[in-house]
Design brief:
MetI-like fold; 11 helices; globular; mainly alpha
Length: 292
Amino acid sequence: MATLRVTLRVILRSMWRRAGGRYSLIVLGLWVLVSLVSLVWTPYSLLATDGFHVWSKPSAAHPLGTDGVGADVLSWLMAGSRTNLIIAALSVIVAAAFGLLLVAAMVSRHGALSAVSVVLVDALISVPTVLVALILCVPFGASAAVIVAACGFAYGLNLARILRPSAMLAARSAYVQSALHSGMPAARVFLTHIVPNTLPVLVVQLSMSAGTSILAEAGLTYLGIGVGAGVPSWGHSLATSVKFVGIYPLTVLWPGLVVTAVVVALNLLGDALRDAADPLANPALRGGQDER
């Protein structure tokens, strides 16, 4: 346990000393902090509206202004941060589980299963995420669950296709074959020997999937198949104000900046974490020595 803590400390310190890693840690830390704070406090209630002050400019009372019904933009963005955090986290979990399950089938020793799974992934990967969301929206209605399911399905297919080459190399290695011949269960071999060899690619792809899920939430909510009308989210803030961008541009600017900053941070996080956790790229991990 002590060794794990030292390793994590070295990785975080290495990420902090990289510009991209520092940016991602700061932005994502603020995102989580704001999400937690919004659970107990926002400047105004989300139900509070003021018909006499609609589309107000930033002021002391409303730092980011108000929207078309006089609701405080900052309060809705704060509350929306936790919705987007949950969607991003669940999308990554579903994509990782589904993608790794497909990878296990694609590198299986059963030739028929491997061949069918490869063809299946190549066929389904062409299905757009929006189409999957539309299909799910018919029986289940517009909700965050539809976004998570659609993103998890689409990103899982993409993850499986990208991980397959490195997983195949590991599956054909001598130590994996030796473990299989020694009687170790195939599932345990996959989790303990094959998956660790795909971690650099896996980390980058999952961080990009988290960022893309935020963009997907904004797009799907704008189309009316995302989160419900009363659920706060960054996509909801964009969808309700984009029609008036030519008249009140600031109401679109704030959620747009938040989405951009977080998506960039998530994309940089994967690269920074991959470099910081790689002993070949990070000398501080070799011999337990910290960077100076």
